[in-house]
Write a structure and sequence with these properties.
This protein is mostly helical. 80% of the residues lie in helices and 0% in strands. The two termini are 34 Å apart.
């Protein structure tokens, strides 16, 4: 599988970085995927899908991540891919419209992430976050993608915790709106 994935990359340094990342994290990713999917073949497919997406369209982002940020990104992508696979196999309706307005307003952070991940492909969510206003994009990216706490996110953004909380609330609403709009356009 690794040789196949390396064919997507042109630069030798990128190939080395990708191979190191694959060797360092693939076992953890596989274990996580198997814990959700309860099937070895499906877990291998999930990990393969994550690495293929990275090699084909997300390597620029991954190249900037180091240490725990990289590990968190890979494990989160694996979890979301596994959940997406479960959603498809269970035949769940994947529509944001099924969420009532009241539920949207009171979702906790964990509930928000799980809801979005259950309803959308992880890469679609990342693209939607990238398209948001910069202050919302950065707050959502640090908090949800890199899994930083709110105080850590505030520190990275050089602002108060209360300002960060407000940006996260507004950013979640903007993200839900963007994803709902995108979902409507795809139909």
């Amino acid at each position: 599988m690794l040789v196949y994935l390396l064919a997507y990359l042109d630069d030798d340094d990128d190939k080395t970085l990708f191979a190191d990342m694959f060797h360092s994290y693939s076992k953890q990713m596989y274990s996580l995927a198997e814990s959700y999917l309860r099937n070895q073949d499906d877990a291998e497919d999930a990990v393969s899908t994550v690495f293929e997406r990275i090699a084909t369209c997300n390597f620029d982002l991954v190249r900037t991540l180091k240490g725990d940020d990289l590990r968190n990104y890979l494990l989160k992508a694996t979890k979301n891919t596994a959940l997406n696979m479960l959603g498809r196999t269970r035949g769940r309706a994947l529509s944001l419209e099924s969420i009532s307005r009241g539920e949207r307003e009171f979702l906790s952070d964990d509930g928000f992430v799980d809801l979005i991940c259950d309803k959308m492909e992880y890469e679609d969510v990342l693209r939607a976050i990238e398209d948001l206003n910069e202050k919302y994009r950065d707050a959502l990216y640090y908090h949800f993608v890199l899994e930083k706490t709110i105080p850590e996110t505030a520190s990275l953004l050089f602002q108060s915790v209360s300002a960060t909380k407000q940006q996260l609330v507004r950013g979640k609403k903007a993200l839900l709106s963007a994803l709902t709009e995108k979902r409507g356009q795809d139909r």
